[in-house]
Recover the amino acids of this structure.
């Protein structure tokens, strides 16, 4: 068996909580390997919050790798927790973190290994309750048949409410016929969606309505949002694994939410508004965390981390506090400008890893469409600054298959890469740039949710263009995501409940670990679609119209649908939109609908204006505004 | 190597669930442990400074040990630790199942663990075989002049004679052990050489006739041969002692 340390637990920070009457036990499960799942911050936060409750107990499980699974089945050992090696069948709730659609078949496999019927409708009263949370739950319809409840948004508060409800049910004895009643009560908790309480209606093959079966169940399920990150300084004791994991370092979340407004980015849309953690709390979490864990690297996590108001001070303090120790700071999500590179240079004093930028698109026109308003001179300024400070290689992330994309836009990616290498060569002859290209998958609750995704053939053609164009470019290395995996992600990302049997078909035919290229089985997915009369073109490649009922219309991330539609129209008109953190509200709905606000320490936007464009977007007051690209090359 | 650094040699054990961690995992565990204990570890120079730690022979994933060793280079200008209490202090920062047994400041001229260790004593519990079969297989191997194994190295078949590196094997048992509920387990105590290469327990068992399968395996000792008379010591006692003691 490979890597047995995946299954031993023993992490610093792990708990072995008491179970029993009056205590609701959660098995928090990440449906992928331990190495991928352990660093997940959401799961670790809930693990601590539940274990702090006198009526809660939380342990963790991860998908057993394909070498362990047959042994478990042969020996009749259920899915187990790594904390106390307790069988999944001895918990009250199994809850999955869903961060990627291709893990859905692993969810079914974990349920099966846990000894629970995979369909919600087949479960008995004392069977495990099956819950899911995480970003994929903004369209849970493809897995609606398999889950009992879905949590939308921040989980910090709502896990307590669910625990209290299940505690009373457990106290009453989980009696025969009471599961339905419990689910109905769960459906009344704000942020909790119980798919079985909703009736789905189709006409002529199209979805026409998803409506509650009962009057006391809400018509629209609103997401949960914690108002102030300062109240939730979690994880307090981040788990330190005994074996290597993907992000083997301390992580401190510096803010949640993002209003840059990149139109392809689901995370930036569904996590609004921006809630910054106070700089002093960040500093404490870093210094105490480093001392407790013994890590020599801390990642400041958020979307677009350099937007944190106190970023410079936090960075300086971390390096200063560490004294003679060698501590590096990682900023996993970098903005593209020289200011950011300056911070990076300071932070990575100890160990200098590669630098990663995400211009996302190769031409200014394309970046206006997606509202990623980085000028060429911003990028080249950042690249020049990085090479001049000793970096020799960097990575650039791009998307292809974006709305309105022309071949000129696609080839702009290659041109950008060549220009970056040329800048690098003036400093170091070995300078190189890795270009990583992913196929674009439209996501729910984004302005691009109506866009018909590019076909596999079209994505392959575009990647081919880039390959031909960079083949002779010295120093440019091209990497791309498999367009076939992009297609399958597209099926599950915007699908409806009729995809449940498709996912089940793939799982029953051995399709697990679909995130892993060595296990991904494209043909099996297509076979499953055909076997269940689901048309790939209808689900993935078709443009949606404004009046179409979308499978997630009964769920709400706070965003007004007409705001998203207007933003979609603006995208097609190549109009940029400001970052509302520092400019007047354009009423997307995320703040106003929930009576909450941005919590940002600095009232002034970072250098370069609210979108880092150097253009004062705020002065016109009329949003959206058209941005005129400036032609001079700015190098700092 | 920095001229002014001092060296600390640590002997630790590894038992229980933590035995499933790899040699690389243990290296990372030690890096974190030394930082948590705020020991002033010396770092390498250059673009990517690394803490100066050097481990002895790798322990296979799944094997337990009473005798693992580690050398740590320390920066004497920042050294303020109490050597008497250091073992307990480090153990407090190690995961459950790992304990510092003993440690000592040693002279920088001491040869590295990799170079110096000449043999290891192993306790090997053998799976599902009766004592007579094991005794015969061991006696046969010890009576033979050679014990030939072939293995793949860099894509080529390489033939090795293990016999000169098998310094002794005793058969004990069947014995009662806590993790077996049936009739008992046959246990071997084997001393296996490590120069020019370390014999692995699994390859020794595979080379016996009939081949045996390991169950629980534990390294009991590492040895350094000091002189031509066959006197040996463990890596702490065989090391060149540091005089004067700098720790205060």
């Amino acid at each position: 068996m490979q890597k047995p340390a995946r299954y031993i637990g023993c992490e610093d920070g792990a708990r072995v909580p008491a179970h029993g009457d009056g205590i609701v036990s959660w098995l928090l499960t990440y449906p992928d390997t331990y190495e991928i799942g352990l660093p997940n911050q959401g799961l670790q936060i809930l693990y601590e919050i539940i274990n702090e409750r006198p009526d809660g107990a939380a342990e963790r499980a991860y998908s057993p790798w394909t070498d362990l699974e047959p042994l478990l089945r042969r020996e009749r050992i259920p899915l187990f927790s790594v904390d106390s090696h307790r069988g999944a069948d001895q918990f009250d709730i199994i809850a999955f973190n869903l961060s990627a659609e291709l893990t859905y078949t692993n969810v079914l496999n974990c349920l099966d290994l846990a000894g629970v019927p995979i369909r919600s409708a087949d479960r008995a009263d004392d069977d495990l309750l099956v819950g899911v949370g995480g970003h994929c739950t903004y369209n849970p319809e493809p897995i609606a048949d398999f889950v009992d409840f879905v949590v939308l948004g921040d989980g910090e508060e709502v896990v307590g409410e669910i625990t209290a409800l299940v505690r009373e049910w457990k106290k009453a004895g989980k009696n025969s016929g009471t599961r339905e009643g419990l689910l109905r009560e769960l459906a009344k908790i704000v942020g909790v969606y119980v798919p079985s309480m909703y009736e789905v209606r189709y006409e002529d093959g199209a979805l026409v309505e998803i409506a509650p079966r009962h009057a006391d169940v809400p018509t629209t399920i609103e997401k949960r949002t914690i108002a102030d990150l300062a109240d939730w300084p979690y994880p307090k004791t981040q788990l330190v694994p005994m074996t290597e994991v993907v992000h083997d370092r301390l992580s401190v979340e510096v803010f949640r939410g993002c209003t840059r407004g990149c139109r392809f980015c689901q995370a930036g849309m569904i996590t609004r508004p921006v809630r910054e953690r106070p700089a002093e709390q960040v500093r404490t979490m870093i210094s105490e965390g480093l001392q407790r864990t013994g890590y020599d690297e801390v990642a400041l996590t958020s979307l677009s981390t350099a937007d944190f108001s106190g970023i410079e001070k936090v960075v300086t303090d971390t390096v200063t506090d560490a004294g003679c120790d060698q501590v590096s700071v990682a900023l996993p999500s970098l903005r593209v400008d020289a200011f950011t590179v300056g911070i990076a240079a300071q932070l990575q004093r100890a160990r200098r890893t590669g630098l990663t930028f995400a211009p996302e698109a190769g031409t200014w026109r394309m970046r206006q469409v997606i509202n990623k308003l980085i000028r060429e001179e911003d990028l080249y300024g950042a690249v020049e600054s990085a090479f001049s400070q000793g970096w020799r290689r960097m990575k650039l992330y791009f998307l292809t298959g974006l709305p309105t994309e022309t071949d000129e836009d696609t080839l702009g990616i290659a041109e950008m890469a060549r220009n970056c290498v040329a800048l690098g060569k003036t400093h170091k002859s070995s300078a190189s740039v890795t270009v990583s290209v992913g196929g674009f998958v439209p996501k729910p609750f984004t302005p691009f949710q109506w866009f018909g995704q590019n076909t596999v053939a079209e994505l392959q053609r575009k990647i081919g263009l880039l390959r031909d164009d960079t083949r002779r470019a010295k120093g440019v290395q091209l990497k791309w995501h498999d367009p076939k995996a992009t297609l399958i992600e597209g099926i599950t990302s915007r699908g409806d409940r009729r995809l449940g049997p498709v996912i089940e078909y793939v799982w029953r035919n051995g399709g697990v670990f679909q995130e892993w290229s060595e296990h991904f089985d494209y043909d099996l997915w297509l076979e499953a679609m055909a076997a269940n009369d689901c048309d790939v073109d209808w689900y993935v490649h078709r443009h949606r119209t404004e009046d179409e009922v979308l499978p997630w219309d009964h769920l709400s991330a706070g965003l007004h649908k007409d705001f998203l539609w207007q933003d979609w129209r603006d995208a097609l008109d190549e109009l940029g939109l400001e970052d509302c953190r520092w400019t007047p509200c354009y009423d997307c709905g995320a703040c106003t609908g929930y009576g909450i606000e941005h919590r940002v320490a600095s009232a002034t936007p970072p250098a370069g204006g609210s979108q880092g464009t150097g253009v004062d977007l705020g002065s016109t007051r009329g949003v959206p505004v058209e941005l005129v690209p400036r032609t001079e090359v700015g190098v700092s | 190597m920095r001229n002014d650094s001092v060296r600390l040699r640590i002997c630790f054990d590894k038992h229980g669930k933590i035995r499933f961690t790899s040699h690389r995992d243990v290296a990372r565990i030690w890096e974190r442990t030394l930082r948590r204990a705020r020991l002033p570890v010396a770092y390498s120079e250059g673009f990517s400074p690394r803490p100066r730690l050097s481990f002895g022979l790798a322990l296979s994933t799944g094997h337990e040990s009473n005798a693992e060793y580690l050398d740590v280079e320390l920066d004497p200008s920042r050294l303020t630790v109490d050597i008497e209490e250091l073992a307990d202090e480090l153990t407090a920062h190690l995961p459950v199942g790992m304990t510092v047994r003993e440690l000592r400041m040693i002279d920088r001229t001491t040869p590295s663990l990799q170079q110096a260790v000449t043999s290891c004593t192993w306790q090997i519990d053998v799976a599902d075989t009766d004592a007579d079969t094991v005794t015969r297989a061991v006696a046969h191997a010890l009576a033979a002049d050679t014990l030939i194994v072939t293995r793949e190295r860099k894509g080529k078949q390489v033939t090795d004679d293990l016999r000169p590196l098998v310094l002794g094997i005793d058969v004990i048992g069947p014995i009662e052990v806590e993790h077996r509920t049936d009739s008992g387990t046959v246990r071997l105590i084997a001393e296996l050489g490590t120069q020019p290469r370390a014999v692995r327990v699994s390859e020794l068992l595979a080379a016996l006739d009939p081949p045996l399968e390991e169950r629980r395996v534990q390294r009991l000792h590492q040895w350094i041969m000091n002189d031509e008379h066959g006197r040996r010591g463990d890596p702490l006692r065989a090391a060149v002692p540091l005089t004067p003691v700098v720790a205060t």
Notes: The helical segments of chain B are 23-36, 83-93, 113-116, 131-143, 201-207. The radius of gyration of chain B is 20 Å. The longest helix of chain B spans residues 23-36. Chain B has two domains: 6-114, 116-232.
